[in-house]
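The methods section describes the discrete structure representation at length, but only in general terms. An entry of this sort, consisting of the sequence and the corresponding backbone structure tokens, reads as follows.
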Amino acid sequence: MKIRTLAILVVLMSVTIAARQSPYKYPYAKKMNQTDDFFGTKIADPYRWLEDSDAPDTRVWIDAPE
């Protein structure tokens, strides 16, 4: 009985804390005009520049304040 009450209390507290937190806001990410052609199917990849984690632009985006 006490364990069940404690478990309910913990769940309610967790939900209350989660509800107070604002949603995470990612830093602005520019879009590039990058399109790949895979066997006749064109696929847009506007964030290709983020794939190189050592590129200066990517490091700026990664290190941007939250």
User: Anything to note?
Assistant: The beta strands are 35-38, 41-44. The longest strand covers residues 35-38.
